[in-house]
Amino acid sequence: MRGITITYDYSGDEAPWRAAMQAFVDAVNSDPAAAGFRYQIAVADNGSSRIHWGRWDSKETLAHVQSQDYFTTFAAQVAEFSGGKHKPLPANIALKTENW
User: Fold this and answer.
1) Domain count, the chain
2) In angstroms, rounded to a whole number, what is the distance separating the alpha carbons of residues 2 and 86?
3) pTM above threshold 0.90
4) In a domain, 100, yes or no
5) What CATH number does residue 36 fall under?
6) Which domain holds residue 6?
7) Which residues contact 78 (CB under 8 A, 6 or more apart)?
8) How many angstroms separate the Cα of 49 from the Cα of each of 9, 13, 25, 46?
9) CB < 8 Å & 24+ apart, contacts of 79-87
10) Which of 47, 54, 60, 85 pairs with 41 at a CA distance of 20 to 30 A?
């Protein structure tokens, strides 16, 4: 299983950031072909650090999600909110709890 962690700082208006994040989550949740794709977005306790965690069950699932308009829009928004300074770190998931 593959995954990614993305980090960046954002201290702008919270409403447009939250709306963009929610739109992506809603789009993934509404896409039956993305059933093997999981995504979480967090705001750190400092209020400005943002952390995204994604994982997927196959290359095909990831390819499908990345080919969707909602992903293209989301990726551009993350780049904009981060000022182009987001740090993606892809990884192989070696171990995990049953519920993740």
Assistant:
1) 1
2) 19
3) yes
4) no
5) 3.30.70.100
6) 2-92
7) 6, 8, 52, 86
8) 4, 14, 19, 7
9) 81/8, 81/10, 81/12, 81/17, 81/20, 81/50, 82/8, 82/9, 82/10, 82/50, 83/8, 85/8, 85/9, 86/6, 86/7, 86/8, 87/6, 87/7, 87/8
10) 60
